[in-house]
Prior knowledge:
This protein is an alpha+beta fold.
Amino acid sequence: MRWGVICVWLICEAVVLKGQSQEISRLKAQLPRIKDSTQYVDILNRLSVLYLPQNLDTCLLYTNAARSIADRQNYLRGQAGVWMNQGNYYALRSNSFLSYRSYLHALRAYEKLGDSAAVCQALANMAIYYKYIGQQASAVQYMHQAMHKSRSVHNDSLYATILVSYYFVHADDSLHADSAQWALTKVRSLANQYHDERTQLKCGLYEANERMKKGDVAGAEKQLLQIMQQAAANGYTYLAMYASAQLAGYKGYFKQPDSLQHKVSMVQYGVAGGYWELILPMTTALYTYYTQHGQPATAARYSHLMLSILEKEQAARTQGELDYMAYYQQNGRLNALQLQHRLQQAKLDKKRLENRKRQYLAGGMALSLVLVMLLLTFFYYAYKRSRQNGIRLTEKYREISEKNTLLQTHDDFKNKLISLIAHDFRMPLVNILEIMNFLQAHSLGPEEAASLLTGVERSSQNTLHTFDSILRWINSQLSGFVYAPEPCRVQELVNIALQSLTDVISEKQVQVNVRIPGNVCVLAECEMLQFVHRNFIHNALKFSPRHGSIYVTAAVDEGQVTVTVTDEGAGIPPHLLPHLFEYHADRPRKGPQQGAGLALIICRDFMNMMKGSVQAANTSGRGAALSYTLPQVECTDPSTTS
Length: 642
C-alpha cells in the first residue's frame, strides 16, 4: 500500500461539525474583509486542510499562499500550520521523505508555541510515518507520546483523530488487537455524538475492513458502496476514491464481475481530486486489462493517463525538493543577492564614468549570453526529464509484464495441482466408499467381505503411495528442492511397479512381458522414476483390450537407456500426440487418452529434472508406445541377472 493511501486518517485532522462545502464558502467570503495578516494566514491554512480530501492542487495553492505571507511576516504559528499541511500534501504525493521532514518541522514549531493539541497531532503523524517505513518500535513510541498528551487536551475532535491513528498503528498487532478495536469503537461513538459526517465516513472504511476479516463479505461491500456514494455526493473526493479502491480489491479477490467498474471509478475520483500518484497502480492495471482484452482505444487512454501521472509526479517531486531547499537558503540567498547588487552597481557606475557605450555593449553581450545559457539549460533539462520519464515508463512496463507472467505461472500451477488431486484420488475413494456400503448392508459373505477388505487395504496403500508421489512433485515445483540422483536398477523398479498394479492386471487378464536385462541401470531419483513407471504401465493397462499384451523393453545406445512401454490399444489420437506431455487449461477432457494427461505432465517434469526426456508414439501395428530416456550408469551391486 502506498504512503498516500496509508495516510487516509492523517489528511483530515481538525474535524468540523458543519458541512465542508458550507465552511469553505464561509471562509472564502471572509478573506476579502480580513486586514490582519496573521488571521489571513490562519484562514488560508484552514482552507488548505478542507481542500485536502477534495482537490490536491487547490490544497497546495492555499498552502503556498499561506507560506508566502507567514514567511514574510515571520509568523511562527502560520509557518507551523504550513508545515503540517505540506506534510499531508506530500504524503498524498507519495513523497514520504518531504512529508516526514514537514511533520518534524511542524512538531518543533508547535513545541515552541506550547500548543499541546497540535503537538499531539504532529506526534500521531510521525507515528504513522514510522509505521509505514516498518519501524514499529518508533511508531509505538510516538503514538504513546501522542496518547499521553491527548489526555490533557479537552478536545473530543482531536481525541477522535488520535484514537484513529492509534488503531492504525496497532491494528496488525495481536497483542493490542482489543485496544485497537476499542479505539475504533470510541471513534464511531464520538462521530455519532457530534454528527460528524466526515469522521463517520472514514470510520466506516476501517469497519468495512474489519467486517471483511470476519467473513462478512456482503456486509462489507454494502457498507463501502454506501460510503462511496455519500462521500461523492458531499464532495469528499478522496474518501470516495478510497472506498472505490477497497471495493475493487474485495471484488477482484473474489473474482466478481463488477470489480472493473470500481477500478474505473477509483481512477475517475483520483483524477477529479488530483491524487495522481495514488491512482497510478490502478491506471496501470486498467491499461493491462484493456490491452489483453483487445480494446486498444480504451487502453490508449489509460496509457496517456499513465504518462501524464509520471510527468506530474516528477514535477511535484522536483518542485517539492526545490521548495525545501529554498526554505533553508532564503536568508543566505537574499544577502548574496544584495551584495551582488551593490557590487554590480559600483561596477556600472565606474563603467558609466569611463565609457557609456562600452557599458551598453558589454551589457548587451552579457544579456545575450545569459539568454542563450538559459535556453540551453531549459532544453537540456527538458530532454533529460523526457528521457527519464521514458526510462521510468519502460521499467514500469517491464515490471508489470514480469508480475503478470509470475501470476500466470502460479495460477497454472494451482490449476494443475487441483486437477491432479481430483484425477488421482476420486476413483480410488469412490471404490472404497462403494465397498464400505456393501459391508454395511451385510450383503456379502465372510469370504467375500475378507477379499474386499484386502482389496480396500491394497487400494488404500496404492492411494497413499500416489499421494506421497504427488507431495514429492509439489516439493519439486517449489524453491529449495534439491535433486539427488543415484544408480537405479530398471528391471527391479519395473517389477515393483507391476506388483502395485496386480489387481488391474488380473481384472483385465493382460499379459505383461518385461524384457529388460538385469544389469541395466540409470542415473535418476528412484521415487521419481517409479512414478513414471507406474503411470506408463497404468496407462498401457487402461487402454489395452482384455486378454491383450503389454511389453516393457529397454534399449541402450551410446550411454543412454531408453525404456518403452507398449500396449495393444486403440493408440493416441493424432491431434493429441504432439501435445501429450504439455499442459493446456482448455485441454479436452474426453477421449482415449483423457485419464493420463496430467500424470504424463508430471512424468515430463520429473524427467526434465533428472536430465532425461519422454516420448510418445503410435506403433506401426496397433497400440501406443510411451518411453523415456536417461543416462546409463554402472550398477552399484556387482551381482546382475539376465
